[in-house]
Design goal:
Number of helices: 19
Structural class: mainly alpha
Largest sheet: 2 strands, antiparallel
Order of helices and strands: HHHHHHHEHHHHEHHHHHHHH
Radius of gyration: 23 Å
Distance between the termini: 52 Å
Helix content: 55-70%
Strand content: under 5%
Shape: globular
Mean pLDDT: 80
Length: about 375
């Protein structure tokens, strides 16, 4: 009879849902954001996500094979697939393919499987893989695609693949000399006589630039460097994509997949703190609106911090957990050297999660019992 029993690691779900069903639902809620990203930034994110999917699922299957474990859970629980999609959405769209592979392998093997597999990892695998690449390769990890009209027509699957897989410069030059549309934007590329197609589409992010310039000056420089319609389009892209993450997060809350207290606590505390910084010194710090829209703040609040393995489970602990991450988030983004504060604050919050759980542990029955308190 023991041969029919299967022992699996946490998380154990006592409801009718299974881990695989939860993970698949989470992935489905990310599809609108993936479509919006492709619309505003081209097919780079989609190709990068496909690379992370193959790398994450393949590395987990290979690791389990080497350990002589069953590979079936890889396809059934969809945890590696979820990690791949989350990591793919956070990486720069035109990141070289080998960096996406390295980040994926690190996330699955080092962060997840070395600790024992699903339910045993201390840190969120997707964020750990992102931070590992960010610290190891800061330049390519802070070079993102600018939002532009008809981006899906400009950065086509072929052109995105040419950049990601590093085709020779002759083909890149040939591609950039074609009629790619959006004449005003591409005219500046031709005038610069760029020989590599990636240089025409990528640049540092708004938050990266804001770390080196005063926010008010940075906005002026940003507007002067690009036409006003591109500024509006870039902001529109951020708002739409953040809205997709928000709607997906609300759906996860409605289906009781994530704890609503964590994102509410994080967004509330971070808004208050960033507002305090901004009103104290608006010439030095960005407004709460910029912090909310830029830097995947909403994405992290609903999809990263709420990971049931690396977060907390009790309601009282959830408020503290979200608040702690919010404080770390504001300190790192405003006072630290990295603008990608969500990833760093989440990992630090993951490290604090066990302590928060202990501090909010319910008093056991009979604990603190004193005989003199019993009335005869």
């Amino acid at each position: 009879m023991s041969g029919n029993l299967i022992l699996e690691s946490a998380p154990h779900d006592l409801s009718v849902s299974t881990t695989g069903k939860v993970m698949r639902t989470l992935i489905l809620t990310l599809i609108p954001a993936l479509i919006a990203t492709t619309w505003f930034y081209g097919f780079g994110t989609l190709i990068t996500t496909l690379i992370t999917i193959v790398s994450c699922v393949g590395s987990e299957a290979l690791w389990l094979k080497l350990r002589k474990r069953r590979i079936a859970p890889v396809w059934r629980d969809c945890s590696a697939l979820t990690t791949a999609v989350l990591l793919g959405l956070t990486l720069p769209p035109l990141l070289p393919w080998y960096l996406s592979v390295i980040g994926s392998v690190f996330a699955i093997i080092v962060v997840k499987q070395v600790y024992g597999g699903l339910g045993q990892n201390l840190f969120n695998p997707a964020m750990a893989g992102f931070v590992f690449l960010l610290i190891s390769c800061p330049l390519p990890m802070t070079t993102y695609v600018d939002a532009m009209p008809d981006a899906y027509k400009i950065i086509t699957p072929g052109r995105a693949a040419a950049i990601i897989f590093d085709v020779n410069s002759a083909e890149a030059e040939k591609a950039i000399n074609q009629d790619l549309g959006t004449a005003d934007y591409l005219k500046r590329i031709h005038e610069a006589e760029r020989s590599v197609i990636a240089d025409g589409f990528t640049g540092s992010t708004f938050l990266v630039d804001a770390k080196h310039e005063q926010p008010e000056k940075n906005v002026k420089v940003f507007v002067e460097a690009k036409a006003s319609d591109f500024i509006f389009y870039g902001l529109l892209a951020k708002v739409v994509i953040a809205g997709c993450f928000l709607l997906g997060g609300i759906l996860l809350i409605v289906k009781d997949i994530i704890d609503w207290r964590i994102p509410l606590s994080f967004l509330g505390v971070s808004t208050v703190l960033t507002a305090a910084f901004y009103f104290a010194a608006p010439e030095l710090y960005l407004s709460p609106w910029h912090h909310l829209v830029y830097g995947a703040t909403v994405f992290g609040a609903f999809y990263i911090m709420t990971d049931p393995v690396t977060a907390v489970s009790k309601p009282s602990a959830a408020w503290i957990f979200g608040g702690v991450i919010a404080v770390l988030f504001v300190i790192i983004r405003n006072l630290g050297g990295y603008p990608d504060a969500v990833a760093f604050s989440v990992l630090l919050g993951n490290a604090c999660a066990p302590l928060i759980s202990i501090m909010t542990r319910r008093r056991e029955f009979g604990q603190g019992f004193k005989p003199e308190n019993i009335n005869d």
